[in-house]
Write a structure and sequence with these properties.
alpha+beta, six-stranded antiparallel β-sheet, 3 helices, globular
Amino acid sequence: MELQVTAQCLARAGSRILAVSLWAVLLGGCAGSAPAHLGVTDGRLAACPRAPHCVSSQAERAEQRVEPLHYAGARDAARARLVAAIRALSRMRIEAERADYVHAIQRSRIFGFVDDLECYLPESGGVIEVRSESRLGWYDLGVNRARVEHLRAEFDRRGG
């Protein structure tokens, strides 16, 4: 009798896990187009929302702040190096590229959730402002911060 009850509990748990997984896949696949707030306005990337799934070098809140990328030399050369570094990261796709801005997306491996990475290269030079945010959910388990740090390491590796 006890074995039968345990098997029923496992079957119910498996059904719940399957339902949640399907829901997550559908949401991840429906992440759709880029949010309207992306881009640069008055020399700033969009502010991070209160949710902890966003980091930015321009963030007001300390827990969401990351250091910008630094470079010496011409801005065009830094942008080319940045684009190469982004392309070197797994599952990254560049969506927009201008002289002063790069927007890329990354889909999560299992559920296909979409995160946005933005990089702003002001005319003043020497710095690249960065912002990384998940489109869905509340927590990101540190994924966006790790993405920026992987980008930093790859950017620095390509010549500093």
